[in-house]
Write the structure tokens for this entry.
Amino acid sequence: MLDPHTLLLFLTSALLLCLAPGPDNLFVLGQAMLRGPKAGYLVTLGLATGLIVHTSAVALGVAALFQASALAFTLLKVCGAAYLLYLAWGAWRAGAQGLSREQVQLSSQALYRRGILMNLTNPKVSIFFLAFLPQFTQPDNGPLAPQLLLLGGLFILCALLVFGLISLLAGRVGNWFARQPKAESWMNRVAGTLFAGLALRLLVIER
């Protein structure tokens, strides 16, 4: 168990980090605006699943591979950027064709998978966890692996809370725009630009 001071400090830091603009919450925002709050929630669940994998990787020491191997890091981030560019192209095509919101809806499984892929193909997440989580461990409390898993679980809960609120707010804004003339095409292009920007950001990050 963590002492109350450490726990409070960690939760505060985690909430602030989840609120700070980053690839994951911007991705949730884009999907929720484009497809509604439910889409944002499903993507959030996918992202949370990806965070479980990253937490486990840190606890097992696998994340150190991406920090040590330039090739592994580069391959994973290129795959992530390619996937985001694919989503950007799809959103821009939808905007150009003037598709309705119903026509661009995806299944729950597809949205969930998008969240997982978005998170897992960003090697920076594992490296961030590798640098962030150990700062709040306490060697006097026993083995570090269970502490890292606990901290990772608490971070995931914070992400679910913050990203869920983002989904709700962005989804409502998207619903309003969807009822306006020609707003659907504009939203698709905004989402496409956002995904393309995230892809470029992922490509330029360093270990």
